[in-house]
Design a protein that fits this description.
CATH class of the largest domain: Alpha Beta
Strand order of the largest sheet: 4-9-8-5-7
Structural class: alpha/beta
Shape: globular
Distance between the termini: 42 Å
Number of strands: 15
CATH superfamily of the largest domain: Rhodanese-like domain
Largest sheet: 5 strands, parallel
Number of domains: 3
CATH architecture of the largest domain: 3-Layer(aba) Sandwich
CATH topology of the largest domain: Oxidized Rhodanese, domain 1
Number of helices: 10
Helix content: 25-40%
Length: 309
């Protein structure tokens, strides 16, 4: 807690807003840093011996709408993984790839590219021919990855995620389970997109990169590879249902946003026009789950047990 408080004090003084998780295994977070404070922020972070030369991923799009408050929480793990095996060593990770190396290795027809993000991230943007692990959480993906990739143990396996954090652990998990040629994209999609722009490389990523802040995505290419969950028209704009008792994360086009008043259904649209006290009563005891359109091996299924019944 001492480290957490010192970090909070330093970032708060520089007007840095964001969401950060601190654990014994490391630090992970996203933050909005004023341009004028960036160097001071970096120097402050690097002043902690445990953070010296820590990788800082810079956003592709310059936006002031990402975060409005600073939250730093102490967690058991920076990414919930469900791993209980005491022999697992998270520091024994796969080999790093930069954008150029990633492009070269993925030209090999034997290479298996694995997306280690959730399905709602994958559906709006991913690398060409990347394997999707159709699960809702990272802890579900790890054992699923070893099962699906069993027949590819001797092939090069390249993993990627948003900023590289999940793949640090995922690549170590595969190595722990006997896989031999495991690689992961250093800095994830964020770093890759910046490198291909700066170096004039071929961009093998298509669509939008989902990000966990108010923007809900950074556009990497102009390709729109997903569809509105309500009408089926091409769209890759995520939103949360306006009904606070639902708050479902889903894709909605502008036409459906107008038609459903920002809600995921006619039922939710009716709820938001009820008196506030009646809405609160409907929300009591509601099971909200993960508040996303869940996906399993059977495909997309709507979340059940909404507050309005």
């Amino acid at each position: 807690m001492v480290f957490r408080d010192q970090l909070y004090t330093g970032l708060n003084a520089l007007l840095v807003y964001g969401r950060i998780q601190v654990a014994a295994e490391g630090l992970n977070g996203q933050a909005s840093v004023p341009r004028s404070s960036f160097e001071a922020c970096k120097n402050m972070l690097y002043s902690f011996p445990c953070l010296k030369d820590m990788r800082l991923n810079m956003a592709i799009e310059d936006s002031s709408r990402s975060f409005w408050v600073l939250k730093i929480r102490v967690r058991e793990k920076i990414v919930a993984d469900g791993i209980t095996d005491p022999t697992f060593d998270a520091t024994q990770t796969g080999q790093y790839l930069d954008a150029r190396s990633f492009n070269l290795l993925t030209e090999n027809p034997e290479t298996v590219v694995v997306d280690m993000r959730n399905h709602y991230e994958y559906e709006v943007g991913h690398f060409d021919k990347a394997l999707e692990l159709p699960s809702d959480t990272f802890r579900d993906q790890l054992p699923q990855a070893t099962e699906i990739l069993q027949n590819h143990q001797d092939k090069p396996i390249v993993m990627y995620c948003t900023g590289g954090i999940r793949c640090e652990k995922a690549s170590a998990y595969l190595l722990h389970h006997g896989f031999r040629q495991v690689y992961h994209l250093e800095g994830g999609i964020i770093s890759y997109a910046r490198q291909v722009r700066e170096q004039g490389l071929e961009n093998k990523f298509k669509g939008k990169n989902f990000v966990f802040d108010g923007r809900m995505g950074e556009r990497i290419t102009g390709d729109i590879i997903s569809h509105c969950h309500q009408c089926g028209e091409p769209c890759d704009t995520h939103t949360n249902c306006r009904n606070a008792g639902c708050h479902l994360l889903f894709i909605q086009c502008e036409a459906c946003k107008m038609k459903f008043d920002g809600c995921c259904s006619q039922t939710c649209m009716q709820v938001i026009h009820l008196p506030l006290e009646e809405q609160k009563q409907l929300r009591k005891g509601a099971f909200r789950g993960q508040m996303i359109n869940h996906k399993s091996k059977q495909g997309l299924r709507p979340r059940l047990n909404r507050a309005q019944g």
